[in-house]
Amino acid sequence: MSENGDRIAPGKGLLDGLAVTFKTMTRRSTTQQYPDVEPDLPPRSRGVIALLEENCTVCMLCARECPDWCIYIDSHKEEVVVPGAARARQRNVLDKFDIDFSLCMYCGICIEVCPFDALHWTPEFEYAETDVLSLLHDKDRLGDWMRTVPPPPAHDVLGEPSKEEATAARKAAGPGAATAAKTARPAGVRATPPTSDPGSPSAPPASAKEPER
Amino acid sequence: MPLWLDLLIRVAAVMAGFLVLPLVIGQAEHKVMAHMQGRVGPMYAGAFHGWAQLIADGVKFVQKEDITPRDADRTVFRLAPIVALFPYLVVILTIPLGPGLVAQSLDIGLFLVLAVLGIGVVAVLMSAWASANKYSLLGGVRGAAQLLAYELPLVLAAASVAMAAGTLSLPGIVEAWRPWWLIWQAPAAFIFFIAGLAEIRRPPFDMPIADSELVFGYMTEYTGLRFAFFLLAEYVGIVVIAALTTVLFLGGWHGPFEEQLGWLWTLLKIFALSFVIIWFRVSYPRLREDQLQRLCWLILVPLALAQLVLTAAVKSLL
């Protein structure tokens, strides 16, 4: 029972309940008929991880950063004899690259840390198995997922330009020019006043971060 | 037409109604409840929007093992679903669809209907006691208390309309019905409908079943076809309560072109009331046992008595 101050008319609650269910009935339900109709997944959906083997240098960053330790990598070194060179060079060759999707928690850290874009998210999610051991995808299977990697979404027109673009623009402008990262941006979207740091041309924030990695 | 053929047609028609109407209403419940909850309900059985879902359910129930608990009173346990189902079949016999369109016209139709509906409590107690299960017993005792309590407002409300019509025959009541009775007998209609809901143990009056606390009340131990009989009894119960409310209070076959389309009006009114019953189920939470009894004894019974007084007063004034 409500307090005396805000007592509502008797039966109003009952009628309100009926109204809510009736309104819901007249609306379309949002059910997706999944096995019949493919779901419309948002961009950057995390379905499964694909491996582009040529890009992998066996740096082991992904395996070390993985919180579940579900990436297994084996490799050996091969000598590459370059004619005319003083001595043979060494190259890492990937023997095994397995991801155990029964352990993976889809955090995406391996993809974030990969310096050479060898790992990619793909929205494919229909790889359930009847045996949990079959969830260990080897490098062929991971490579096969590359087919399903969508093209990267277009850049946000209002966003910062990528580091590569900014660096290129800065180099083109020559030393001592205004920071490229600022000039490359559309002028209308600046939130901070343009006179905040006029005298620091050689230290854009992006390059200051570089030694930390 | 020879007597046996006449009988055969009537019995076949009643059986068809008895088997088809509950299925239609059960399917409507699946779909209406789903859409009221923002779902779509069955979509696969029968290819088009799951129209054959209840048939598939029936086939499934037939295949299930028929288990009788070891400590159960076997005869009573097995008899109970039939006892639950049979009274409704008898009630359907007496419900008029259109002018002259009734399987068995009785002068004391209303009396028979109310008497036969009272058998429901026996089925509940039989299944509850014979199951040898504490949940069943609790559900059965709750059911008995509820059915006995709500029988009173049900009968009083029906008595009001019988007084107004001056007859106990169901077709007679429909013939005597006038549109202004909708206002005169409105409290009785309301009481009859609510008490009817409680009689068939539909949510929000499903305290005897209360699946979240009593598993499934007196139906806990039932499997397979016997359980399906109980479910069928529930849906036939919806048909019967909707049909009785239609015939007693909403003027049965009265409507445009009632000579030809009377049966259609009756059916439409029955379906509309069944929709309301489903609607109530989706909208309201279950009443607690004490709230249930309070509603009956403190609201419905006094209201029904007041309605009787009103009916008598208006009747003597006319």
Automatic annotation (TrEMBL), chain A:
Recite the UniProt cofactor note for this protein: Binds 2 [4Fe-4S] clusters per subunit.
Bilayer disposition of the protein: Peripheral membrane protein
Q: Where is the composition biased (Low complexity)?
A: 169-213
Record localization: Cell membrane
Give the enzyme's main class according to its UniProt record, as a single word. Answer: translocase
Cofactor list:
[4Fe-4S] cluster
Its main localization is membrane
The UniProt entry, under Pfam families, shows: Fer4
Reaction it catalyzes: a quinone + NADH + 5 H(+)(in) = a quinol + NAD(+) + 4 H(+)(out)
Query: GO cellular component terms?
Result: plasma membrane
Q: Name one GO molecular function term.
A: NADH dehydrogenase (quinone) (non-electrogenic) activity
Positions contributing to [4Fe-4S] cluster 2 binding? 66, 104, 107, 110
Q: Which UniProt keywords apply?
A: 4Fe-4S, Cell membrane, Iron, Iron-sulfur, Membrane, Metal-binding, NAD, Quinone, Repeat, Translocase, Ubiquinone
Region Disordered, as annotated, extends over 147-213
Question: Recorded E.C. number(s)?
Answer: 7.1.1.-
The 4Fe-4S ferredoxin-type domain covers: 47-76, 95-124
Query: Which InterPro entries did the record assign?
Result: 4Fe4S_Fe-S-bd (IPR017896), 4Fe4S_Fe_S_CS (IPR017900), NADH_quinone_OxRdtase_chainI (IPR010226)
Locations of Basic and acidic residues compositional bias?
Answer: 157-168
Binding locations of [4Fe-4S] cluster 1: 56, 59, 62, 114
- Answer whether the UniProt record assigns the keyword Metal-binding to this protein: yes
The UniProt function text for this chain reads: NDH-1 shuttles electrons from NADH, via FMN and iron-sulfur (Fe-S) centers, to quinones in the respiratory chain. The immediate electron acceptor for the enzyme in this species is believed to be ubiquinone. Couples the redox reaction to proton translocation (for every two electrons transferred, four hydrogen ions are translocated across the cytoplasmic membrane), and thus conserves the redox energy in a proton gradient.
* Quaternary structure (record): NDH-1 is composed of 14 different subunits. Subunits NuoA, H, J, K, L, M, N constitute the membrane sector of the complex.
Q: Which family does it belong to?
A: Belongs to the complex I 23 kDa subunit family.
Which protein, by its recorded name, is this? NADH-quinone oxidoreductase subunit I
Organism, scientific name: Actinoplanes aureus
Ranked from the top, the taxonomy reads:
Bacteria, Bacillati, Actinomycetota, Actinomycetes, Micromonosporales
Which gene name belongs to this protein? Answer: nuoI
TrEMBL record, chain B:
Q: What top-level branch of life does the organism fall under?
A: Bacteria
Give me the Gene Ontology terms describing cellular component.
plasma membrane
Work out whether the entry's keyword set contains Cell membrane. yes
**The protein's Enzyme Commission number:** 7.1.1.-
Q: Coiled coil located at which positions?
A: none
Please report the record's description of how this protein sits within the membrane. Answer: Multi-pass membrane protein
- List localization entries: Cell membrane; Membrane
The record's family statement is: Belongs to the complex I subunit 1 family.
The annotated subunit structure for this chain is: NDH-1 is composed of 14 different subunits. Subunits NuoA, H, J, K, L, M, N constitute the membrane sector of the complex.
Q: What is this protein called?
A: NADH-quinone oxidoreductase subunit H
In the record, what lineage is assigned to the organism producing the protein? Bacteria, Bacillati, Actinomycetota, Actinomycetes, Micromonosporales
